[in-house]
Specification:
The protein is of the alpha/beta class. The chain is built from 13 helices and 13 strands. The protein starts with 13 loop residues before the first helix and ends in a 26-residue tail after the last strand.
């Protein structure tokens, strides 16, 4: 019997092999930058982010721990293309490798998504999306304004559905719904309809276009379009893209339709349903009137006038009861009045107590009044001192102390010019420390005297 030769291969445990693979991968792929599309995004209660980073051929499990996830400047969503930076590792429990991401940023269309999110937050902070600004759609508009491309399936679908439900007048404002000039033309359409007057002015507006990529729908995310929709006095329905597409005009519009056809359904009711409802309401009204007339007829037939004796019997009975109770009530009222009067009788002791209480209140008032009176006197004294200082400042004597002088003629009238002074024989000059008499210099040119102005009341002339 032959023996099996011994093997030189060392048998490793599964855990040892998994640990070796983990070390190898983490050593060789300690820094990687990967671009891909997010799929199956999950934010755990712990705050950690779990997602699949994929392309058309492979899927990479990705984890971002809470500390890094909280620093993201955008909200990771399924379908968003991102660039993730981190390191590769393994999860031994499932024999899977995974990316431990330390940072993540949008890429391509993801950058547009990030810009869209930032613009949305900005406009929301300004209150443009608040429900209190939403206007109610008219139930039965006479004219509908549609802002869209005049060619294509969108306008045909809207017109067809309005014609089916309730034919009304439709005015189309031609506008590009894709490309660089689309936002400008859509804005012009909204503002143009609002500027209209008279019977042609629409009662409701529809802004519509078909589905497309985020780049195709981007004109409806432009700020000028959103602000024009917010400023619109006419109620506005947004019907941009398919039901899964969302643009900023959807948030600011008064109603958002999932499709352009849905916008037409929101704008007008179904005419046949209205006719049926009117007919049913008319029949119900007839039946209600018939029942009301029957009840009135029955009441009129049953309403027979009673005899005069029957009408007087209840009053007579009430009078008998009142007559029987009158003595008891009068006695009770008298007793109550006597009791109240006895309580109001004053005794010397009560008078003395009231006097003592009044004196005490008077003393308390006097104690409180004295400090208040002193404060009032001090306040009035300070105010009087301030007024005295102001009076002294404004007095003409203060002006004289600064080097000015008053010139008067012998009758005490002010002399205001050299011409008048030269015609006087003498005049009196008042300084701050006294008066003196002066005369004009010899040889001064004669001047025709002018009438002196009237002397101000109070004996004090004006310096100015």
């Amino acid at each position: 019997m032959s023996e099996t030769p011994a093997s030189n291969d060392h048998a490793q445990s599964v855990s040892e092999l998994a640990a070796s693979l983990k070390r190898t991968i983490e050593t060789n792929y300690d820094h990687v930058v990967v671009r891909g599309e997010l799929g199956r995004v999950t934010l755990a209660k712990s705050g950690h982010l779990y997602a699949d980073l994929k392309d058309d051929k492979a899927v990479l499990n990705t984890i971002m721990w809470r500390g890094q996830a909280e620093r993201l400047t955008f909200r990771p969503e399924e379908g968003l293309e991102v660039i993730a930076t981190g390191r590769l590792s393994t999860y031994e429990g499932r024999s899977a490798y995974q990316l431990i991401a330390s940072s993540m940023r949008p890429a391509g269309a993801g950058a547009l998504m990030q810009l869209l999110e930032e613009r949305k937050k900005k406009l929301a902070a300004e209150g443009l999306f608040d429900a209190r600004h939403k206007k109610k759609l008219p139930y039965l508009p006479r004219t509908i304004g549609v802002i869209t491309s005049p060619t294509g399936a969108v306008i045909r679908d809207i017109l067809h559905r309005i014609r089916e439900r309730f034919p009304v007048r439709v005015i189309v404002w031609p506008a590009l719904v894709q490309g660089e000039r689309a936002a400008e033309q859509v804005t012009a359409g909204i503002r143009g309809f609002n500027a209209m007057t008279g019977p042609d002015r629409p009662d409701v507006l529809i802004v519509a276009r078909g589905g497309g990529s985020i780049e195709d729908l981007w004109p409806f995310n432009e700020e000028i379009v959103v602000r024009a929709a917010f400023d619109s006095e006419i109620p506005l329905i947004s019907a941009v893209g398919h039901e899964t597409d969302t643009t900023l005009i959807d948030y600011v519009s008064d109603q958002r339709a999932p499709t352009p056809t849905g916008a037409a359904e929101m704008a007008v009711p179904v005419r046949t349903d209205l006719l049926l409802s009117v007919g049913e309401n008319g029949q119900r009204l007839k039946r209600a009137l018939t029942r009301a007339l029957a009840r009135s007829r029955d009441k009129l037939a049953a309403a027979r006038l009673p005899r005069a004796e029957m009408l007087l019997q209840p009053a007579r009975q009430r009078l008998d009861f009142a007559s029987a109770n009158l003595p008891k009530a009068a006695l009770a009222l008298t007793q109550k009045a006597r009791l109240k009067l006895s309580r109001l009788q004053l005794s010397p002791a009560m008078l003395n107590a009231e006097i003592r209480l009044g004196r005490q209140r008077l003393r308390d008032t006097a104690v409180r009044a004295r400090p208040a009176l002193m404060r009032l006197i001090a306040k009035r004294t300070a105010a009087l001192g301030a007024e005295a200082k102001m009076l002294e400042t404004l007095s003409y004597t203060a002006t004289l102390k600064r080097g000015y002088a008053l010139v008067r003629d012998p009758q005490g009238r002010l002399i205001r010019s050299a011409a008048i002074a030269s015609g006087a024989d003498e005049f009196r000059i008042t300084f701050s420390d006294g008066d003196m008499t002066a005369a004009p210099l010899d040889g001064a040119p004669p001047a025709r005297p002018r009438p002196a102005p009237p002397r101000p009341r109070g004996g004090q002339g004006s310096l100015f």
